[in-house]
Write a structure and sequence with these properties.
13 helices, 2 domains, homodimer, five-stranded mixed beta sheet
Chain lengths: 503, 503
């Protein structure tokens, strides 16, 4: 048996967790239990499931103090950040409860039998149904919101699928505490035993992805780990969907007019956006295109970074990788060092770094994502230079533009180009701080993600559902939402969208 | 230059088409033209696009006689079948026009800026947008409805994506005639030149899938060809979605009570379903589970098949493969021959075949799909035997049950099991004759298809769209459908679904 250890990134001290790596047999048992829970979960009503999600939210709230303090020592993130993240996580569960009650996510459609130009057509009814146990790989940088109780777990459960989480190696104790809070709340609520499972250790994660009971994988992490999991999936007898949120540079562009109008506000916002949570956010702006009149803005950023104190990175791997990428950006990406990141005295701590490059020199090497508090400032002479440089930057989760209203027609071609390579376009703001809402889109063209779905917001549900149609089915076989007399969800009936009348 | 030939399957006679295989350079040019057309297509309104789809439908109708007669000599399908298929194809284009005008497929969501439990949230607006040029691989068995003017083409265009079709090698002249009808109609309508392209030859198809401009592939065909295309996609620098409709056995189950109640009607329907279009339909029932009291039903099927005259298969490859699979089903699948398929005097013609097996002997070898007029009758003693045998049958597009109303609770577990392995469950009917409608679902768990989307019906649109969000965007940047004052499409605004008020 291998015992899992954890590390306090603020000091580098090892934390003995007492948690053992999950054996292959235990993984198989956990997956089998989830498969047993699946049909039971499916049989419950949406109202029951909304109650379950709320019970899970309450269960997390009850252990708030313990969860935040455990995460504090395992992640080095600040208390306010962790408290805010837990609030977001709880809010997310409750938002999914609302969405489940609303039922619009079912995409219910009823086509009554009738004449068609090709003769009589049968009665066809269709809605989305759950797919089975979901493997969720927690991330390092969001110990709550993208980990055990995070968005993948919440959306998979909301869609009526059991969940098995692979705990991230950076925060096993936080993972266990969150798991236990949810498991206990689920048991009290009366949910089936296999509703939620957890496995620890890299090997257990690989075994889980290969398990025949697993119907899909939700993953937030690096492109390299994502590729390893994809290889396992491709070797499966039956392939399953892999929903990976992988890599994102999040380009940000400031026009000369925007610099003239509000350089100080942009400097403040940009600094906060690339250094918040020590730059370890998937939507951190990794490259900012600044015009030639931005010298004062650049000087302000440099001053802030130079004066900054060191913040802990999440773990030693990220800490080491950060240094290597910074070196590559300078050597291969031809970036000049404006502020050298400095390691702190203890643990995996670091101050922010700023690099600079001429926009015309931007290549794929300049576009490498550095996970941590680093930004590349690409100085440009014209928006044509920006548009040209953007071709070297892979698609991202987000793209951001700061401009002035009078530039609308000037920047239109740039915005059209940015839309092709992003899942969310931000105007005059910053890409970090992803709002959890009905319309949020967190996902973009490859390699930002590998899907056409979102991993944040209500539409994240869609990843763990598939369409099923019933032809000429007797009423008793149909899900309640597809019966003629039911009016509790929005439905498209004979081509006409109708609203729910009994909420 | 290689000249493409075609064959009349009724006689085996070679048809000189005068069409040359598309060179790599021509493929690249065609893809580049599509990429140029894409932004122009995106700029047009939904109203314009609905008009385009209707113009394409009219263009096909105008050349109905030529299209049907060309397909007749290249496919050996009957005139009524081809005429019906063309009607379906034209109807499909018009249905997509209606869906485009409706705008519900955009899944428009508006979250206004406002307070959230985590502080002030930005304005977030999201809808689905097109993804770029789509490569469509026409099928052998539907020269219209799943080929050049078929469902993939119609849904990709409806979603505002240019289309490049790889003509199926079985019907190049039909492909060219349909392409020209649509191309001319599009030109008259004023569509951009690169809206529609066509390539001929196996190599051209592979080159097309590898082309960097291509954003997704729609494919209807064999699992083996599908795998070859998937390998090309995996070797691309950036992976793209592959929407493959690959393989389907379409199990059908008849209960003893249903046999007692309506053996003659079931025999008639089942015979038509497995022999129609010479059994070359993706939803053909390939295996039918019949109880012990079905001897008269079986004898009726045997009599019909024995008396049948030979019908042409689509091409020599299908003809040869059919014979090989029949041999494997007997030798490895342990099936007994009730009616041996007999080759006709000319061309690739064949009479229907019927095999029989005990349900308890059904294995994966018995579950091989035979594309052509062949059915395996699996005789069972109890529904438990059926449920057990179903575990050897891979997921399918459809599953069908014939039962009596009083059996509802007896068959409930069977239906639950069938739902896990199918995209559409048919009650007391037959899976062939897929209705084109809003709620149709044509797709199932792997290997039926490799996606969670449909390739028939209005929701087929979803495959060629991706979500995009705008954060705090000025009104002028937003698509018209996301502007506050617009009410022409259904939208979810601040969590509340609202209907369109100005159609």
């Amino acid at each position: 048996m291998t015992t899992i250890t954890s590390t306090d990134p603020r000091t580098g001290a090892t934390i003995d967790t007492g948690i053992e790596a999950t054996s292959d047999e235990q993984v198989a048992t956990t997956a089998a239990l989830a498969a047993v829970a699946f049909p039971e979960l499916r049989r419950h009503s949406r109202q029951w499931r909304a109650g379950l999600l709320r019970a899970l939210a309450d269960g997390l709230e009850e252990r708030r103090a313990e969860l935040v303090s455990t995460a504090l020592s395992e992640t080095g993130l600040t208390s306010p950040r962790l408290a805010g993240e837990l609030s977001r996580t709880v809010f997310q569960l409750r938002l999914f409860a609302t969405a489940v009650l609303d039922g619009g996510y079912l995409e219910a459609i009823i086509d009554h039998a009738g004449e068609t130009p090709m003769g009589p057509g049968p009665d066809v009814r269709r809605m989305l149904v759950p797919i089975g146990p979901i493997a969720v790989f927690g991330s390092s940088n969001f110990p709550f919101a993208f980990s055990v109780p995070g968005g993948d777990t919440a959306s998979a459960l909301a869609a009526a699928n059991p969940v098995i989480v692979k705990a991230h190696s950076s925060h096993p104790l936080t993972s266990r505490a969150a798991f236990e809070a949810m498991r206990d709340a689920a048991a009290t609520y009366g949910a089936p035993h296999g509703l939620l499972g957890i496995v620890y250790g890299q090997r257990a994660g690989a075994t889980l992805v290969a398990d025949a009971h697993v119907a899909a994988v939700g993953f937030t992490g690096s492109l390299s780990t994502g590729r390893i999991l994809l290889d396992i999936i491709e070797a499966r007898e039956r392939p399953i969907p892999f929903y990976g949120e992988l890599s994102s540079l999040n380009p940000l562009i400031v026009t000369a007019a925007a610099v003239d109008a509000r350089a100080a506000a942009i400097a403040e916002g940009l600094y906060t956006s690339f250094t918040g949570s020590a730059g370890q956010l998937c939507t951190k702006p990794g490259i900012a295109f600044l015009p030639q009149n931005a010298d004062w803005l650049v000087a302000t950023l440099v001053e802030r970074a130079t004066d900054a104190t060191a913040q802990p990175l999440l773990n030693e791997r990220i800490f080491r990788s950060f240094g290597e990428i910074r070196t590559r950006l300078v050597e291969e990406g031809r970036a000049r060092v404006l502020v050298e990141p400095r390691a702190g005295a203890d643990g995996f701590t670091l101050t922010p770094g700023i690099l600079e490059v001429d926009a015309i020199d931007v290549t794929e090497a300049t576009a490498e994502e550095a996970f941590g508090p680093l930004i590349v400032l690409a100085r440009y002479n014209s928006l044509d230079e920006v548009r040209s440089a953007m071709q070297a930057i892979p698609p991202s989760l987000t793209a951001t533009v700061h401009s002035q209203p009078e530039e609308a027609s000037t920047i239109a071609p740039l915005i059209e180009q940015l839309q092709e390579g992003a899942g969310r376009i931000v105007f005059d703001g910053f890409p970090t701080g992803v709002r959890v809402s009905w319309g949020q889109q967190h996902g973009g063209p490859w390699p930002a993600t590998n899907t056409a779905h979102s991993s944040v917001g209500v539409t994240a549900l869609r990843r763990f559902l598939r369409p099923l149609a019933w032809q000429d089915a007797p009423e008793s076989v149909l899900p309640i939402e597809l019966r003629d007399s039911y009016t509790g969800v929005p439905r498209r009936v004979d081509g006409i969208l109708t609203l729910a009348t009994t909420p």
